[in-house]
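Input record (one chain):
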Amino acid sequence: MAFNSIKDILDKIRSRNPALEKRLEEALAVDAWEKTVGSQIAKHARALKVEDGILWIEVDHSVWRTELHHRKRQILEKLNEAVFPKDAEARETAGKKAKKPRTDTIKDLFLIETKRSNFSGPGGGLNPIRDSKYLKKNKAD
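The corresponding structure, as predicted from the sequence alone:
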């Protein structure tokens, strides 16, 4: 079997490994955060990781957490369209109302308000490994 390009090779690998495809889509969603929400919001909220289809967002103030909560549906739609641009184009050319892509990579946002004084500097902000263990332990609260 001959391959014409590196894209053909990557497409073949992705088709044989769905877990890799999912992780690549999640990485694209995290990467698309700033472009999706704009620089003003990105100054106060940053994407940390995707876990089980949930994008973890760290915000520096409760006002931004509330704002993002109210815009959640709009943000999710834009993020998933950033990951699946072909689905968005197909909906537009078909003249249908904008619906979620068939395969949403990001299903929800988990908004975390940092309790530290320095949002993005050294030692500041959320530690996803340490804090995710804490959150799982205290999930029932």
